[in-house]
Fold these 2 entries.
Entry 1:
Amino acid sequence: MRRSKLILGGGALRLDAPFRALLRPGRDVLPVYHPERAGWSVALRKLALFTGIVLLAIVYGFLVAILPPSLLVGAAAPLALLAMLVVWALPEARTAPTRALGRVYTTFVIVFIAWPNYLAVAVGGLPWISMRRLVGFVLTGILMICLSISKPFRQQMAEVLRTSPWLARLLISFFIIQFLATIFSVAPGDTIGRWVHITFTSTAACFATIWLFGPGGKSVPWFVNRLALVVFLLMVVGVFEARTQHVLWLGHIPSFLRIDDAVLQDLIQPHIRGGYRVVTTYTTPLAYGELLALTTPFILFRIVNAKTWPMRLMWAGFDAFILYSAVLSTARLSLVGFIAAHALFGLCWGIHRWRNARGDMIGISATMIYPALMVALMLAVLFVPAIHIRVLGGGAAQASTDARSAQFHMAVPVIARRPLLGYGLGQGGRAINWRTPDGTLTIDLGLVALCADVGVFGFLAWMGTLLLSVVSLFRAGLRDVASPFPAEFAIAISLAVLISTRLVLAQGDNDPLFVILFGLSLAMLYRARLRDRGDPVPGGMKTVGAGEH
C-alpha cells in the first residue's frame, strides 16, 4: 500500500517515483530509532543480497554437476548447518510432535529390517536415496524439533540420562569419538558420508528410543510385537527363497529403484556352502542370522510372560521357527546366538525365581542344575558331529575360521599404528587389507573392525556401554518382583548375544538395532529407578492429539 501511494500520488501516475526514492537522502531520527538509510544504499544492499544468492546457486549447481557423489556431503554441509540453525531458532511450544516421532520411529524399525538396503530411489543424477536413510532423515528432523521447541521434552531426556550417568557418558563418548575419528580419518571424503549416514540411521534412533520407551511410555512388548512381525515376514520369505534358490525379487526390480551392480552380481550367484544359504533382505546370510539371534531373547520373554496357554504356544512355535530359519541361513553365529540366548534365559529365569519366590524349589533347582546342563551342552557341541560343525565349524566352514584367524593377526600391528582414533569409519578393513583368494577386500571380525575404525578409546566406549548395560539390566531385573521374566533380562541377553555375533561379523546391516538396544537399556533403567522408588512410571508428556500411548 505504501508503494502504491508512492507511485500513485494525488491520483496521477508518477513515473519518476522510483528515481525519486533512489535519490532520497538519508534522514536523522530520534536516538531510540535506527537512522533511515539513503535510497541508493538500500538499493545496493538488496542488489548485493540478490547477487549473492544467484552466485551461491551457480556455485552449488556447478559442484553438483562436477563432483562425485562421495564429495557432495561437504558441499551440503552449509545447507545442513543452516537447517540446524532454523530448527534451533524455532519458538518454544507447549507441546512437541511426539505422536509423529512415534509413528516415524515405527516406520523406521520396519524399513531398516524389511527393505533391502541395496535398493535405493534414483532421481535424475542425484546420489541414491536409500529408504533407511530417507526415513532416518525424517526421524532426525522430528527429534531435533522436539528438542528445540519443548523444554519438558529436554528435561525428560536429561532426566533419563542422569538416571544412569556412567552409561550415558560412555554412550555419548562413543558418538563423539565416532565424529572425531571421521574428521581425522585417513580418507575424510569417504568417512564423512558414512558418519552422516550413521547419524541419520543410528544416532537419532538411539535417542528417540530413550525418550519413547522412557518418559514416552512405550513398552518392551510394544517393541517386541512389531519386531516379531517383521522378522516373521522375513522368515516366511526365507522359506520360499530356500525353495527357489535365489532372492524372490530378483528380476522384478522396478526401473526407479537402482541397485549396485556388484551387489546384483553377488545376488545372482547363490550363496552355497553345503546347501543354499538364505539371505532374505540382507546381502549375506550372516547378517540375517545375526538378526535372528538378537530377536530370540525377546521371543523367550514373550513366552514366559504370555497370559494364556494358546499365546504361549504361539510364541513357542515362533521360537522353533527361528531355529529352523537359522538352519536355513547356515550361519554359525545364528545357531551360537540361539543357543546362548536359551542358556542365559534359563540362568536368569532360575535366579530370578529363586530370589523372588521364597520357598519355591523350582527356581533353586533350575539354578543349581544349570552347571550340569552347561557341561552337557559343551559336550554335545564338542562330540556330536552335526552340532559341532554348525557351531564351531569344520568341513566347508573351516576356511572361514582360518580366514578370521589370519585377519586377527594382520589387524594387531595395523591398530597399533593408529590407536587413538583409528583410521575412520569404514577404513579399518582397508588398512588391514585382507583379501579373499579372488582378490575381494573384506573384514569379518566385527570388534576388530570397530577398533580399527574408531581407535582403542572408541572400542572401549562401545564395549563399556554394552557390558555396563548388561550388568545394570540384570541387577534391575532381579529387583522386579511383578514379572515372571522382566524385560530387562531380555535386553541384557540380546546384548550378550551381540558380543558373540560381533566376534565373527563386521557387516553393519544391523547397526540401528544395536543402538536401539542401547537406548532401551537407558530407558528401562530409568523406569526401574521410578519403580524402585515407588513413583508412577509416566505415560509421556502431553502431545498433539490424544490416545498416542
Entry 2:
Amino acid sequence: MTALTLSTAAAPGLRTDAIVVGVAKAAGSKSGDLAVAPGAEAVDKAYDGRLAGVLETLGASGGEGEVTKLPAPSGLKAPLVVAVGLGALPEKDGSFSAETLRRAAGVAARALAGTKKAAFALPVSDAADAGAIGEGVLLGSYSFDAYKEAAKDGNGSKKGKAPLVEATLLGGKSRDKAFKAAIERATAVSEELNRARDLINTPPNDLNPEAFAAVAQAAAKEHGIKVQVLDEKALAKGGYGGILGVGAGSASAPRLVKLSYTSSKAKKHLAFIGKGITYDSGGISLKPAGHNETMKCDMSGAAAVFAAVVSAARLGLEVNVTGWLALAENMPSGSATRPGDVLRMYSGKTVEVLNTDAEGRLVLADALAKASEEKPDAIVDVATLTGAMMLALGNRTFGIMANDDAFRTAVHEAAEEVGEPAWPMPLPEHLKKGMDSPTADIANMGERYGGGLVAGLFLREFVGEGITWAHLDIAGPAFNEQGPFGYTPKGGTGSAVRTLVRLAELTAAGDLG
C-alpha cells in the first residue's frame, strides 16, 4: 500500500514526480471563477501567480472530482502539477470539510497510478485535515489485480500502472503528536478497510466460509486478538439452526467466527455482527439471471466487522470489541433448505422459511442471539440484506434501524462524521404482523413493501432483552458496479468499516452512551 509521510518542506524544492494542489470555485477571485486553495501558495508563485488562469485556459472549473494535469514551471523540481477540484470555496472560515479533502486526495491518488512519488499540497489547518487527506490517498490508490495475469511481467512481478508508491503530505508536522497520531490512524484503518475490499473482491471459488475463517485466524494471531471458529459439527451441537439451514445446500460448510479484542482499560463492550454469505445464489428460491454475477459481495458485512475489530486492536482502543462473522454459502442442491421448511434457531425460536433468498437474516439471527448472551453494552449488525433498501436509498447510502432512537441517531452521526452516507429508518410495528406464521414462531418474510424494514423487525426478535441494538443495511454502497469516484473504487468498497471504528472510538472515549 502507498507509504505516507508528513513534511513541512516547501513544495518547490521537493524532488518528487508530481505535486498535487487544490483548486476551488470562487466567483469573487481575481482570476474569474477559479481560486487556488490554501497549501498551494508556493506552487502558484512558481507560476507567477497565474496558476488559476492557466487552469481555466485548460478548461478547469474547480468542480469536485475534477483532475487537471499540467507541466510544472522551472521554479519547481517536480515535473508535473496535478490540480484537483474541491468544489465551492467555503464562505465562512475558508476551511474545507474533511470529506471534501478525503475525496480530493482519493481522486488525485488514483490519477497518479503508475507514479512513484507525489507530494500533496492540499489545505491542512489541523491534524484532522492531514488524517483525512491520508485516508483519501490510501483508499483512492487501492487496486485489486491479484487475478490479472496481464498485469504481471514474465518474472511474475506486476507491471503497468501500479498504485502510487509514496505520498508526502505537506503542511503536517512529522514530530507533532497529533499529526503523527492522525497519520497512524489513517494508515491502520485504511489498510484494514482495503483488506476488507480484497475479501469482497475475491472470487467465491477462492473464498468460501472455511477460507474466510482462516484469514480471520491469521489476522487475529498477528494482532493479539482471541479467535474461536465453530465448524459444522460445533454448530450442530450448539443448535445454530439458522446458519446450518442456510449452508445446508453447499459443499462448503458454514462457520461462525468469534473475534475478541479486549483492553485492560475498557469500561464498555461492543459487539459487531457481520453477514458473511460468501456466495448467494438464492438457494432453492434461485435468483433470476442478471442478479447472480456480483453475489460474491454478500459477505461485505462480515468483511466490515472483521476489518473494524482488527482496526480497534491496531489502534489500541480502550474498549472491548467482539466481532461475530456468520459465514455460509447459499446454494441449491438436494440437501438445501426448502421454502416451507422450519428451522429451530439458536435462540430456540422456530422460523418458517418462505424464501431461501432471505437467508442473511437467518445467519444474523443466530449470531445476534449468541452475542446477546455476553450482555454487551450495544450490538451493531452489518449486512447486505435487502434490495428494498437499495430501492429506498440508492447505491451510495446505507440504512440504519435500531431499537433505541438515541443510539440510531448516534450511529447516523458517526457515519456522517467519517464520510459514509447513511440514513435513519423506522421499524413500524404494524409490519411485524406480516411475518406471522401458522406453523412456526415467525416467518422469514413479511409484506413486500417496506421489505428492508421487515428484515430489521425480524432481526430485532433475536436481540437479547434490554440490549441496545442497531442494524446497518449496506446493500447499496457495499459493492460499486459503476466507475470509481472520490476514494471509492469499482467493486468492493469496505462500506461501514469506518462507521464501526468511529463507534468504537466514541465508546472508548465515553462519548457514546
